[in-house]
Write a structure and sequence with these properties.
With 244 residues, the protein is an alpha/beta fold. It has helices at residues 7-11, 16-21, 56-67, 81-92, 111-118, 131-143, 175-190, and strands spanning 37-42, 45-53, 101-105, 123-128, 149-152, 165-169, 194-199, 210-217, 231-237. Helix 4 packs parallel to helix 5. The longest helix is centred in the last third of the chain and has 16 residues, at 175-190. The protein is globular and about 50 Å long. The mean pLDDT is 90. Bound molecules: S-adenosylmethionine. Residues 75-76, 79-80, 82-83, 106-109, 111-112, 127-130, 133, 154, 156, 169-171, 173, 177, 180 line the site of S-adenosylmethionine (SAM). Residues 75-76, 79-80, 82-83, 106-109, 111-112, 127-130, 133, 154, 156, 169-171, 173, 177, 180 line the site of S-adenosylmethionine. One of its GO terms (molecular function) is protein-lysine N-methyltransferase activity.
């Protein structure tokens, strides 16, 4: 397995927003800077290192104070169980993405996108509606030495037409978000895309409409996660009934 040296992180040129996110960020990780990010391996995907929150709430407070107004929660500073499981699956089954154009929908930290790039995807695009996530994705891609395009937009009213593979880690995390993700997933499946979700069983994956490809035991609890999830599945849609 690759040993992470921190070299791409040290060499990267960061934007102003990235410099704000990365203020006091550390590699190797240091303790005692609880409103900062620290670079570390992802528990289920140690091939990938990410800038992760020491304490998401304190990081959020620091960024809001610096921004001067409310910001979305920094979901991008946590590798969510669904994303960890999906990234693990992609690295263990590289033929799913190898040589193909891949979209990581609701990318957060960029974990799944980075895994797809490492697994040999031809092109990888990471999408999120949070501009801070986009800055983090680019910093994390640099740190892992991979190229990822980014789109900060809501793409869920389309069918992801530019992409052969659509990956979505932990995108069914509230009823409201699931209500826009599931029709998008259905449209993408119907036009022939390969669609894979990582989902820790939050209750928004419709039974019978998503088939389980594999289930990982003991997805580790991470900072910002809303309760222990000990089983996380990789799912794929099976029914056009998802389409609206
Ligand atoms: C629970 S996090 C999961 C992040 C990442 N996929 C992972 O598994 O670690 C959900 C992400 O979805 C993003 N999001 C929510 N609604 C979205 C939408 N309509 N389009 C794109 N991203 C969205 C949020 O900004 C957040 O980064």
């Amino acid at each position: 397995m690759k040993t992470y040296s921190g070299a791409p992180y040290a060499a990267a040129t960061h934007s102003a927003l990235q410099r704000r996110l990365l203020r006091n960020a550390s590699f190797p990780p240091r303790t005692g800077q609880q409103d900062a990010l620290k670079m570390g391996p992802v528990p289920m995907v140690p091939e990938v290192h990410l800038f992760l929150a020491e304490d998401s709430v304190l990081l959020w407070a620091r960024l809001e104070a610096e921004d001067g107004g409310p910001l979305p929660a920094p979901y991008w500073a946590t590798p969510w169980p669904g994303g960890q499981a999906l990234a693990r699956y992609v690295l263990d089954n590289p033929e799913v993405v190898a040589g193909r154009r891949v979209l990581d929908l609701a990318s957060g930290s960029g974990l799944v996108a980075i895994a797809a790039a490492l697994a040999g995807a031809a092109e990888v695009t990471a999408n999120d509606t949070d501009g801070y996530a986009i800055a983090a994705i680019q910093a994390n891609a640099n740190a892992n030495g991979v190229q990822i395009a980014t789109v900060v937009d809501d793409m869920t009213d389309g069918d992801g037409a530019d992409f052969e593979v659509i990956l979505a880690g932990d995108c069914l995390y509230t009823a409201e978000v699931a209500a826009v993700m599931l029709p998008f997933i259905g449209r993408a499946m119907q036009r022939g895309a390969t669609v894979l979700l990582g989902d820790p069983g939050r209750g928004y994956a419709p039974p019978g409409l998503l088939r389980t490809l594999t289930t990982y035991e003991s997805a580790p609890l991470v900072s910002g996660e809303d309760g222990q999830r000990d089983r996380t599945s990789v799912l794929t849609p099976v029914a056009v009934a998802l389409t609206s």
